Amino acid sequence: MKTIKTLSAAALAIGVMGGVMIGGNAQAAVGGPKPPSLDWSFNGIFGTYDRAALQRGFQVFKTVCASCHSMNLMAFRNLEALGYNEDEVKAIAAEYEVQAGPNDDGDMFMRPATPADHWPAPFANDKIAAISNGGAIPPDLSLINKARASGGDSAIRASLLQPGGFPLGADYIHGLLTGYKEEAPADFSLPAGKYYNEYYPGHAIAMAPPLYPDGVEYADGTQASVDQQAHDVAVFLNWVSEPELEQRKNLGIKVMLFLLVLTAMLYALKRKIWANVH
Q1: 222 and 274: one domain?
Q2: What CATH number did the domain enclosing 230 receive?
């Protein structure tokens, strides 16, 4: 099963986005309530990804997020890690077209995507993306969970940390997607064209609420509430950011067990060597 290659730390320098989708300049970046800390299946030393949640999250990304956001670091073949078989991955890829070429005449052309291709961007370039989104370029979501946990401006980064200083990551993604309010508080001045979000630093966000009840029809029949969609897409985006998480934890457990056994052996050896020394 193939996964997305681990990326260098430099790739984490994705600019602070306006929420998860389209960014807006934050007023007073520090302060405000912290998103609730959820019990994610991948938390803890023995944590693993919930494959059903991953597939539902992929549906949310494909149906809602992919119309504006790219996922440049994910190839279609990586979806096998979500539990899709080879034929299903081929069918998903065939729904999209990617640019290829040049042909014998020197022209570029479009062809159906294959599992080896990366997820196609919704816009041809950043200029078109900005024009289509009120001047803001929707950020690539490949590493967005890591960016929300450890990247960005120091003031915003401070506001995204829990009281103990632990990074939020998926908690922030879920909180932001469920933090929209129909009306801003009476004492809050909301700029024109912005939306009030309880968990976005500064509360004024340019992205309209992207999730609605039953906005996605889950293949497994799960009720697609806003909270459920936000949870599932946060799990999916965490997997895209850390596809190696399960392998890393398994290796860590094996290393710890090895060190415990080695420590016991060395202690026994020390007792043996020094047994007759007074």
Answers
A1: no
A2: 1.10.760.10
Q: What is the pLDDT of residues 38-84, one digit of tens each?
A: 999 999 889 999 999 999 999 999 999 999 999 999 999 999 999 99
| Spatial distance between the Cα atoms of 164 and 183, rounded to a whole number of angstroms | 31
Query: Would residue 197 be called left, alpha or beta, if left means φ above 0 and alpha means ψ between -120 and 50 degrees?
Result: beta
- CA-closest candidate to residue 205, choices 15, 26, 16: 26
**Residue 146 shares a structural domain with residue 253:** no
Q: pLDDT tens digit string along 117-128? A: 999 999 999 999
Tell me how far apart the alpha carbons of residues 221 and 241 are, in angstroms, rounded to a whole number.
Answer: 27
Q: Report the number of distinct structural domains present in the chain.
A: 3
Is 148 found in the same domain as 189? yes
Same structural domain, 249 and 142: no
The domain of 249 spans: 244-278
Q: How many CB atoms within 10 Å of residue 57?
A: 27
> 262 and 174 in one domain?
no
83-105 pLDDT tens trace: 999 999 999 999 999 988 888 88
From 36, 91, 84, 22, select the one nearest 58 (Cα to Cα): 84
Cα 185 to chain centroid distance, Å, stands at 30
222 close to 207: Cβ distance less than 8 angstroms: no
Average pLDDT, the chain: 83
Return the CA Rg of the chain: 23
Q: Is 0.85 topped by the overall pTM?
A: no
CA distance 252 to 100: 42
Q: Domain check: are 87 and 98 in the same one?
A: yes
Tokens of 3: 């996964």
- The pLDDT value given to residue 29: 39
CB 171 within 8 A of CB 35: yes
Asked if residue 2 has pLDDT above 50, the reply is no
Q: Are residues 190 and 276 in the same domain?
A: no
